[in-house]
Amino acid sequence: MQAWANIETVTPERFKEGMRRLAAGVTIVTTVHDGERNGLTATAVTSLSAEPPQVLVCVNRRAGAHDLIHKGSRMCVNVLSHRHKNLAARFSGQLGIYGRERFNAGRWMTLKTGAPVLEDALASFDCIVTERIQAATHTIFIGRVVDVRIRPKARPLVYASGTYARLEHQPKSSRAKTSSAKSAARKSAASRRRSGRTAR
Ligand SMILES: Cc1cc2nc3c(=O)[nH]c(=O)nc-3n(C[C@H](O)[C@H](O)[C@H](O)COP(=O)(O)O)c2cc1C
After folding, report:
1. Residue-by-residue DSSP string for 47-58
2. In a 3-state reduction of DSSP, which class is residue 198?
3. What is the chain's pLDDT, residue by residue, as a tens digit (200 residues)?
4. What are the domain boundaries of the chain?
5. Is 30's C-beta closer than 6 angstroms to any atom of ligand 1?
6. Using an 8 Å Cβ cutoff, are 78 and 30 in contact?
7. Closest Cα to atom 4, ligand 1: which residue?
8. For residue 100, how far is its CA from the centre of ligand 1 (angstroms)?
9. CB 3.0 to 4.6 Å from 124: which of 26, 42, 80, 149, for a disulfide?
10. Pocket of ligand 1, candidates 26, 33, 37, 43: which has the most ligand atoms within 8 Å of its Cβ, to mutate?
């Protein structure tokens, strides 16, 4: 370990340039404590384990929601769809809107913990915070999922190269056409083999 002690790290700029290549699903992490709500747009969110169901979220200690998550020990991870681009901008401070004002857009409800749940999120994971790990500028919050709300299919919102994007799904009808075309080609190849002809 000691041999590496003096090795220089890359610059934050170079690090960020590399991380911009990592496409990520976008969430809004919300919390409530003593009746005060707050939330932030976050991509540093991941599934930790299924047994027990746990997620982890990395939150900058300077974020408005940080101390509330810490004190209230509850949070909800709302997975955004491509329709939520404006909400993502709102909860990342890009519109100059802060604290409870952020909830004046979107429809919000609660599940078990009381943390705000976005009604039309792709999925919302309602969590009790069980562990907090300090890591330089951030706290890693580990949340035990006590409730989940899952909405009908929609396209996820993705963030990559400093911009929001959506995944293009192949429409069902064209998928059906592609698979029927493949099956027709297979049948015709089989029939050619039976009759001794080869495809050109
Ligand atoms: C796409 C995107 C992803 C972000 N991911 C995180 C994250 O994972 N953790 C974090 O602390 N901040 C993240 N941020 C920054 C926060 O959303 C932003 O700093 C927010 O304004 C913090 O809330 P505050 O204004 O109440 O301090 C992200 C911002 C954007 C635009």
Report:
1. EEEETTEEEEEE
2. coil
3. 578 888 999 999 999 999 999 999 999 999 999 999 999 999 999 999 999 999 999 999 999 999 999 999 999 999 999 999 999 999 999 999 999 999 999 999 999 999 999 999 999 999 999 999 999 999 999 999 999 999 978 899 999 999 999 887 655 554 545 455 556 666 666 666 665 544 33
4. 2-169, 171-200
5. no
6. yes
7. 42
8. 16
9. 149
10. 43
Q: Is the CB of 26 under 6 A from ligand 1?
A: yes
Candidates 190, 189, 159; CA nearest to 80 is 159
Domain covering 2-169 in this structure, CATH number: 2.30.110.10
For the chain, report the end-to-end CA distance as a whole number of angstroms: 63
Task: Tell me if residue 97 falls in helix, strand or coil.
Answer: coil
Distance 35 CA to ligand 1 centre (A): 22
Q: Where do runs of H (alpha helix) occur along the chain?
A: 12-19, 66-72, 85-90, 172-194
Kindly state if the Cβ of 158 falls inside 6 Å of ligand 1.
Answer: no
> 80 C-alpha vs ligand 1 centroid, how far in Å?
14
Distance from residue 53's CA to the centre of ligand 1 (Å): 24
Letter for the amino acid at 118?
Answer: L
Instruction: For residue 137, give the nearest of 42, 57, 60 by alpha carbon.
Output: 60
